[in-house]
Structure formats: structure tokens, C-alpha cells
Amino acid sequence: xxxxxxxxxxxxxxxxxxxxxxxxxxxxxxxxxxxxxxxxxxxxxxxxxxxxxxxxxxxxxxxxxxxxxxxxxxxxxxxxxxxxxxxxxxxxxxxxxxxxxxxxxxxxxxxxxxxxxxxxxxxxxxxxxxxxxxxxxxxxxxxxxxxxxxxxxxxxxxxxxxxxxxxxxxxxxxxxxxxxxxxxxxxxxxxxxxxxxxxxxxxxxxxxxxxxxxxxxxxxxxxxxxxxxxxxxxxxxxxxxxxxxxxxxxxxxxxxxxxxxxxxxxxxxxxxxxxxxxxxxxxxxxxxxxxxxxxxxxxxxxxxxxxxxxxxxxxxx
Length: 317
What we know:
By secondary structure, the protein is an alpha+beta fold. The chain has helices at residues 15-26, 60-64, 103-114, 135-140, 179-189, 215-220, 224-228, 236-240, 251-259, 262-279, and strands spanning 3-9, 35-37, 46-53, 68-76, 78-79, 91-92, 118-120, 129-130, 133-134, 150-152, 154-163, 166-173, 194-204, 207-208, 213-214, 233-235, 245-247, 289-294, 297-305, 308-313.
């Protein structure tokens, strides 16, 4: 089984809880395959979680580097150590009085965050490592980990609703952006404190939440075959349809590549590397893989790593 399964993770469970549900339901000694995911969601957060199945696990880092879109609710006038409801409020802005925020003020904040990349300080409750230890582990022990701000890009920011004491917004951001930190920074622009009370991921690259399965649907699915017919599943072959195509000339060459015939393998590695050099320009921004075609079908892919391209093959059915 090779592909991507979109799950609508509910609040209150971890991303690994979802993977455990899948493993208990579908992984057996008779039907083993790799499983991973393309970016965790905190337990308090909900929304799009992409499970990577079989050879799709090789695309993890590339999927995780796509732009992501979130919807969030920000409470104003107070904060927590984790910038979310997972920890208790420790600071309250006594000078903050809930009031209606002018639309012009919100529009100005939208423009400020989207005009250029900005230096974002990660939350102390994060998985970043400090001297070999996770920042959240140090924070839970009462330490304040020293973190370094990093440039992040907010491609789009839209305030959806403003109520007394809270704001809801939607943001499309670069990989590695902390929405909890963005919420804190928005509150600072309003001269107060803030933390997220809700967070929902709605899109990763071209993958959208609208087609995702609920965890309950996953639990009630009886077979892998039934799962692959759900709109939330995309096979690796389907995914590769939008990738640049590279043609394997004939069935004989295909079989030689599958079995690792050195002469044929080296010839095709040079061809695919030369083709990549033609495409790999800042203007094109192409993805680092090719869909391998033979006799009108996608038969595998060429994936670019640190040491160059490698070929992988699978059934086109």
C-alpha cells in the first residue's frame, strides 16, 4: 500500500494516537508496510494529519516543507507558558479591557505580517533541541530554554472574527512556523498578551481537510481496499501525476532498472540528472522528483537526495 491518507484529527489526542489506531486496524504480519506522517499536531489542535503509507514515507520531508494553512482562535489579555490551553494562565494583563478592535487596525496587522519574512521566537514548549534536550522537557522542569528566533514567512493572514476578548484568524505560513507564536505576536501588536484557545490545520500544500476521514470513520473501515476507495486516500501514482514526467524508453529498460543492471542504471541516472539540471531554476521552483513513465503508465519515481537521484518502482495498478 503506497499513498497518502488524510485524517481529520480531533482535539484531545496526539498524532501518534491516530497512527496507533491505523496500525491496530490494518497492519498485520501478512500485510506489513511502513507508516509515518507529514507533521504532527499538538493534542489541543485538530485538523489535517497526513498519514504516509508504504513508499510515500520517502516523501515526508518534501510534504512537510509545503505551505500550511491554519485557523486559530486567540484569547487576548492573558497568556500561558505553552501559548495554548495545555498549561495554565500565568500572566494576566490587568490593563487590558476587552473592546471592539477597529477593522483598520486588523488590516494594518495583516499587512505588517505578510509584507516580508519576520523573525519569530519559538515557544519554550516546543520540540526544538537545546543542548541535546527538547525545549518542552526543560520548560516542564522549570527551566527557561534559550531559543533563537528564525525567519518565517506569513503568506496570507486574514482575521475572520473579532469578539470581546478574542480574535479568530486564518494564516498560510511557511514550514516550521509556530501558530502559537504568531498568536502571541499578534497580541503584542495590540499591546497586550495572548494565547491560542483553538487551532485547526486545514491545508498542507495541495492536500485539503475537506476530503479527510474522521478517526471514527477510520475505526469503522473494514479493509484496506475499502480505505483506498475513500476520497481521503490518494495513491502514490495519483500524487505523481502532477510531477514532472520522465520516460523509460521500453519494457526491457524498465526491467533492467528494476534489477539494477549497472550499465542501464548509470545511463538513466545521467539522463534524469541532466533533465533535472534543465528544470532546477529559481523561476521554476520544481519539486525534487520525477514520475517514471513507461508504456503510458506511471511505474515509479526518481527521487533526489543528497547523493543524487535514486529510482523506485511499484505497480501502476
